[in-house]
Amino acid sequence: MPKEIEFIFKSPDDSPGYLLGQLTMLWQRKQKKVLDPLNLTQTQFVLLAALGWLSKVSDAVTQIDIANQSNTDRMMVSKVLRTLEEKKFISRQEHQTDTRAKVITLTHEGAKILQKALTAVENTDSEFFSVLGERLPSFNQYMAKLTEQNKDH
């Protein structure tokens, strides 16, 4: 039998990575439950939400803008946007000044489905994180710091 495996942490509940992984899986399961009836995956929702958010401040949102906003791989964004276009949730037109880029916009159907998804996801998030109570803003700040610190690694 091999030598006993050595762990830095005394138990799984002492490991932030393990706990984050467990929490993420449970959270994703809840998200899937509310997104499935809307014919959206978690990733599709994230990209639609990024597009919706960016569209509030710009009429020329590109694939790169969406990838940057969502901290998502550009090639994966391209594939998912193709699927969203097939579902008629987005449209792509030529960019007026950058011939390599396409302007991505929500269609009427895309805006309707995004609004339904936002309501469902935000309600699910409120319920999921309700145990944090008044500590939620602090929890969010720590998550934002961790994201900012690690997004270029």
Automatic annotation (TrEMBL):
GO function terms (MF aspect): DNA binding; DNA-binding transcription factor activity
Protein name listed in UniProt: Transcriptional regulator, MarR family
Lineage, uppermost ranks: Bacteria, Pseudomonadati, Bacteroidota, Cytophagia, Cytophagales
Pfam families registered for this protein in UniProt: MarR (PF01047)
Alphabetical list of SUPFAM superfamilies matching this protein: Winged helix' DNA-binding domain
InterPro entries: HTH_MarR-typ, MarR/SlyA-like, WH-like_DNA-bd_sf, WH_DNA-bd_sf
Keywords from the named record: DNA-binding, Transcription, Transcription regulation
Keyword Zinc: no
Domain called HTH marR-type: residue spans: 13-151
One GO BP: response to stress
